Amino acid sequence: MAKTYDVVVIGGGPAGYVAAIRCAQLGLEVACVEKWINFKGEPALGGTCLNVGCIPSKTLLETSEHYHQAKEGFGNHGISVDKVAIDVSKMQARKDEIIGQLTGGIAQLFKANKVTWLQGSGKLLADHQVEVTKHDGSVETVEADNIILACGSLPIDIAAAPKDDKLIVDSTGGLNFTEVPKRLGVIGAGVIGLELGSVWKRLGSEVTILEAVEDFLAAADQQIAKDALRQFKKQGLDIRLGARVTRTEKSATEVTVHFQDKDGEHQIVVDKLLVCVGRRPNTDGVAGPEADLVLNERGFIHVDDSCETNIPGVWAIGDCVRGPMLAHKGSEEGVFVAEMIAGKHGHMNYDSIPWVIYTDPEIAWVGKTEQQLKQEGVPYKVGTFPFAANGRAKAMDGAAGLVKIIGHAETDRLLGAHICGPMASELVQELVLAMEFSASVEDIMLTIHGHPTLAEAIHEAALSVHGRAIHKVN
Question: Whole-prediction pTM value?
Answer without folding.
Answer: 0.96
